[in-house]
Design a protein that fits this description.
Blueprint (H helix, E strand, L loop, with lengths): L1 E4 L1 H17 L3 H14 L1 H4 L5 E2 L2 E5 L5 E8 L2 E9 L4 H8 L1
Parallel strand pairs: 1-5
Antiparallel strand pairs: 2-3, 3-4, 4-5
Helix pairs in contact: 1-2
Amino acid sequence: MNIQILHDAELDLLEGYAFYENQTSGLGDYFLDSVFADIDSLKLFSGAHEIRFGYHRLLTRRFPFSVFYRVNAEVIEVWAVLDCRKKPENIRDRLC
C-alpha cells in the first residue's frame, strides 16, 4: 500500500518539528524520524487502529501525537498529525 500525507498533515508535522526544535537543537529531527517511522508502520498495520472522529487513530510511540488516517483502496491517506495534549474539542473541531 502507498501512503499519502495530505497538505494539512504536512503542516502539522512542520509545526511539531518547530516546537521540538525550539526546545532542543536536533529534537525536531528526532521527532520527524520517529513520527515517520510510525507512519511507515501503517503499511503493515493500517486499519487496525481505533476509529475516532471518523478516522483511524495511530498513537505515536515516542511523542504525544496521534496520526489520523483513512484507508482508501490501495492508498493510506494521512489527514492529520495532532498533539494529544490539546483539548479534545480542538482535535474534534479540526477533524470534523
